[in-house]
Design goal:
The protein is built from 4 helices and 24 strands. It is mainly beta.
C-alpha cells in the first residue's frame, strides 16, 4: 500500500523514515485561523535545506535551544508535504540528538542582496531595497484559492533581485521608493532556478525607508510579465471606433489627411503610393470588466478579426457589425500592454 495519504488540512502527504541536520531560523509561535505553529529550516547537507513547520508549540523551546547551540538533530515520525517539500511536525514527532558529517552553515546577521547567496532556501529575512520596476497585477489560482499577484525588482548597492508581491502588499509599494521588507521568503525562480524573494500572506510587513546614498545597479532586462498583463474580461461597451490607412510597404499608419489625397507619401518609409491602394484598417477603444474592475483597452484590426473568428462571423470593416461582434463576444482572455493598453493577444476564456 502506498505511504501517501491525505491529512493535515489537505496536504499531499508522504511519511519518510527520518531526516538529520541542523535547525536554523526558528520563528516565534504564530497563530493562523485554524492552529498555532512555528517555522524553521532544517539543514540536511552542506548546501541543502528544507522548510519545516511544527504544530506542537510545546516543542518550541527545545527546538529553539538546539538551533542556538548548533546541535545536530534526527527527526522521525513526521510527515512531508510533497507539493511544497515541507516537513510537517505535530505532537508525534521524535527529536533526538545525533551526529552528522557536515558543519552548520552560518546565516548572515544582516542582509543585502549580494549576501542572499549565503542564506538558506525558504528562510524568512529582512532586507532594505529600492523598488525599481513593478509589473501588472494578475489573478492566479493557488492552493488557497484565487489570489492577486504582481512582480517587481528590488535594488540595493550590492545588486538586484526579483520579488513576488501577493495580495495587499501590491498596493503597499510604489516604483522608485525604498522600503524595509520584513519576513520575505527566499525562493527560487521557477524557470531559471535563480534566487528570488516572495512576500508571505500573513507575516510580511513593509515600511518606507530612507533612500540609499550609494549608486544603485542598472535594472535588468524586463521579462514580458513586467510590460504586459493577462486578464479575463467581458466587453461592456464601445467608446471609440475609427478607421485609418496603412502603408503598403511598412504597414505603418499614414497621415490622417491621406483620406482626401489621391497620392500619398508614407512618413515612416517614404514610399509614395496611391491612396486607393493602401490598406484600410480599424480600431476600437472598448470598456471591459474584470470582476468588479472596469478599464479601457484598444482592439486593433488583427484582434478584432480574432473576435469575428471566435463568433464564426464573416470579416467586415462595418462599424455597426464590429460593435455587435464585440458586445456579443464571450468572456475573453486578453494580453495587453501595461502602458498603451493595446491588446496584442485575444482568445476565448476556457474555464
Amino acid at each position: 500500500m502506498s505511504s501517501k495519504r491525505r491529512n493535515l488540512a489537505g496536504f499531499n502527504m508522504d511519511k519518510p523514515h527520518e531526516l538529520t541536520g541542523y535547525l536554523h531560523a526558528v520563528s516565534p509561535v504564530k497563530k493562523s485561523s485554524k492552529s498555532s505553529y512555528f517555522e524553521m529550516l532544517l539543514q540536511t547537507g552542506s548546501d541543502s535545506t528544507v522548510r519545516a513547520i511544527c504544530f506542537a508549540t510545546k516543542k518550541h523551546d527545545d527546538l529553539k535551544a538546539r538551533s542556538s547551540k548548533k546541535s545536530p538533530v534526527k527527526l522521525s515520525n513526521f510527515q512531508m508535504d510533497l507539493k511544497s517539500n515541507t516537513v510537517l511536525m505535530d505532537n508525534k514527532v521524535r527529536i533526538d540528538a545525533t551526529k552528522v558529517s557536515f558543519a552548520p552553515k552560518e546565516t548572515p546577521q544582516t542582509n543585502n542582496i549580494a549576501s542572499l547567496s549565503g542564506v538558506h532556501f525558504q528562510q524568512l529575512i529582512t532586507i532594505k531595497a529600492k523598488v525599481t520596476k513593478i509589473s501588472g497585477t494578475k489573478k492566479v489560482t493557488t492552493a488557497n484559492g484565487e489570489k492577486c499577484k504582481a512582480e517587481c525588482f528590488l535594488s540595493d548597492p550590492s545588486g538586484t533581485i526579483p520579488l513576488t508581491l501577493w495580495e495587499d502588499k501590491i498596493n503597499e509599494v510604489s516604483e522608485g521608493k525604498t522600503y524595509t521588507f520584513h519576513n520575505v521568503r527566499v525562493i527560487k525562480e521557477c524557470k531559471s532556478d535563480k534566487l528570488a524573494l516572495g512576500t508571505t500572506m500573513h507575516d510580511c510587513t513593509v515600511s518606507e525607508a530612507e533612500d540609499f546614498i550609494e549608486s544603485l545597479p542598472q535594472s535588468v532586462e524586463l521579462p514580458d510579465s513586467f510590460t504586459t498583463t493577462e486578464a479575463k474580461v467581458e466587453v461592456i461597451g464601445l467608446l471609440t471606433f475609427g478607421k485609418y490607412l496603412s502603408c503598403l510597404q511598412c504597414h505603418k499608419k499614414v497621415a490622417d489627411g491621406s483620406f482626401t489625397a489621391k497620392i500619398i507619401k508614407c512618413g515612416n518609409c517614404n514610399l509614395t503610393q496611391k491612396r486607393d491602394k493602401c490598406i484600410t484598417n480599424c480600431f476600437a477603444q472598448v470598456k471591459v470588466s474584470q470582476d468588479d474592475n472596469q478599464f479601457t483597452v484598444t482592439f486593433f484590426q488583427e484582434q478584432i478579426k480574432k473576435v469575428f473568428n471566435i463568433l464564426q462571423r464573416p470579416q467586415t470593416l462595418d462599424e455597426e457589425k464590429i460593435t455587435e461582434a464585440l458586445l456579443d463576444a464571450p468572456i475573453l482572455k486578453i494580453k495587453y500592454d501595461n502602458k498603451s493598453k493595446i491588446i496584442n493577444e485575444v482568445s476565448p476564456y476556457i474555464i
